[in-house]
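request received
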Amino acid sequence: MRTIRITGTGSALPGRIVTNKELEQLVETSDEWIRERTGIAERHVSVGETVVTLASEAAHKALEQAGKTAEEIDLILVASCSPEQYLPCCACQVQAAIGAVNALAFDVNAACSGFLFALNTADVYLRTGLAENALVIGSEGLSKLVDWQDRNTCVLFGDGAGAAVVEADPARMYYFDQGSDGSRGEALSCPGRPLRSPFVATDQGFAPYIFMDGQEVFRFAVKKVPETVALVLQKAGLTAEDVDLFLLHQANERILQAAARRIGAPVSKFPMNMQACGNTSAASIPILLDEANRKGLLKRGQTVVLSGFGAGLTWGTALFQW
Ligand code: UT7
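response:
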């Protein structure tokens, strides 16, 4: 059966690093609290980089590793919940920036599950023969959506991008599960522009920032991630023991530890980088994937599980052979 194979990865992070100590100057928090509750020590914050420039840099690196030119790419998917522009979409801007003149390009917004939703979409395009390859990117500039006076959220997020080149492969396995529960959307939200026109009576005030009920999302994540991983393992006819690496969305070290326990795999199989990157939403999994790849943690033939969860609420998991 025709599925997909990842043939190149890349990532890009803004140069400005903000430490927990620096945040102590902005809000009532402490390095100790942030590290203990989340595992985060620092994050990269854009000071000129955009979702598109970061995505394009990550894309260049992934293409180089895959040995592909931009012109050869059939499909570009950018997962992001923090674009600078409503129009055109990030994927079309990346297409223009890298010169992928032959690609179909569009965005996917499933927040922190976005990269999985985009990867699974690429799998469907490639599986059905609609494309031979795809550039799948997660890119975020969350620093502009965060209220830097709200300690509940500003200590958590970071900016960055990760990319993967995927190509059709007749011999690989690829199983996925994904889902959405819109009825719980209030748990993690961020408003866009309010209605504003000559036909609206009053100017509606709005707070254009991320709001999160942290405990609600925490409970959702520790329950849903093991469930969706178990479902994908079942589809593949495998157990947790057969998996070499679990690359999960980097929201919180405690979530990953709890998920590892419930999945029944040692934490050593769950690489983490939230210490250095914070929570980069749709970018966290492809950044981690690129790190693991470039560090040589991934060996051809190994079984890898990716799993993301977040606003929507949404969740997405993929199991494949590296
Ligand atoms: O990527 C999308 C998915 N997002 C997630 O998965 C995030 C899931 N949630 C979490 O990771 C955790 O819930 C948080 C890290 C956001 C919060 O950790 P928590 O252990 O759930 O803390 P909490 O919200 O229960 O707050 C405990 C206390 C509160 O004080 P009181 O009410 O006990 O006096 C908070 O006000 O910690 C306080 N607090 C802080 N203190 C110092 C909240 N934020 C901070 C802070 N520094 N930055």
